[in-house]
Amino acid sequence: MHFKYQRRITDLDNNNLLSKKQAEYHQNKRDESQLKIIEKSEMIDSFAIDYGIYFGESEKFDKLMREINHWKRPEIPNFREINNLTELNIEHDKHFKNTTQYILKHMTSAVGNLAEHIKAEL
Asked: pTM of the prediction?
């Protein structure tokens, strides 16, 4: 999504200082969100490794991991139909927030499910 946004800003007005600042702002927001998502992913990986070390093979745990890995991905907008920088920024903000919240909600739920599964095994 972020690449499509950057490409569209360049298509609309590559020389516009405001558009460059806006693109930089969105890049920073994207980086912050990426760090949060990576943190959740590392927690999932850590739980999976710990489970394997302490409990070994488990079909139930493997099924849970498959469910976590095969989740419904959010739709990514194209932004090609938008011809105005202000509208583009508004749409990007909206989709970015929704997508980030969706992903973080899934990751948080996955961490919780893994923690509950491990607690049940103890």
From this structure: 0.63
